[in-house]
Amino acid sequence: CQNTCIITDSQATEDATKMGGVPEIASSLETPTLIQSSVITNVNWNMDQDRKMTALKQLQGHMWREGYSSGEIQGHLYEDVEEALKLWTSSGKKVYIYSSGSVEAQKLLFQHSVAGNLLQYFSGHFDTKIGLKIESASYQEISKSIAVAPDKILFLTDLPAEAIAANEAGVQVKLLVRPGNAPLNEETLQRFGICHNFKEI
Question: What is the mean pLDDT of residues 41-63?
């Protein structure tokens, strides 16, 4: 876990200068047990804050790799995902994933999904290295990266803040309303089209 600890320590040092209440990572001069305990405390704190930082997502990706490889966990998908991916790609459309989860985590989930390996249906993956999902510049960068004009891209999300950011970048947006999602206010419903499953797209 040496590389992971370096990533976490670097993030903790940066956080300490910007915000309060961040659990410190023990010095490399401390015992391995104390270092490990302090890293775990820091990681749990960041998870409790639901932070979308790259370092945390990379760590999660490393952990998931082991779980997926051993078969202990599988990527769970909505039932309409596999059929939609096949339909869209067979009709010439390209599908990309943009997630706060790392690219590695995305690939692991779809490679080891309950529906089998679905990686063949994706033309590319993006994570927070390209920018936060609530920043319009991120969607502009994705547009440049895949050489497709923003108004030719359809972005699907269940979070209004992401929908607003993508829309401000000129991207078409549909809000997905799935069981368990937070309710949407009237203003959001009027601003964006919604769909309840991929068959409605």
Answer: 78
pTM assigned to the model: 0.72
Q: Tell me, yes or no, whether 40 and 97 share the same domain.
A: no
171 vs 36, 59, 137, 150, CA distance in Å? 43, 30, 11, 5
Mean pLDDT of 70-76: 90
The CATH number given to whatever domain includes residue 30 is: 1.10.720.60
* 90 and 149 housed in the same domain: yes
Residues 55 and 84 in one domain: no
| pLDDT per residue as tens digits for the range 112-123 | 999 999 999 999
**d(C-alpha 174, C-alpha 167), whole Å:** 10
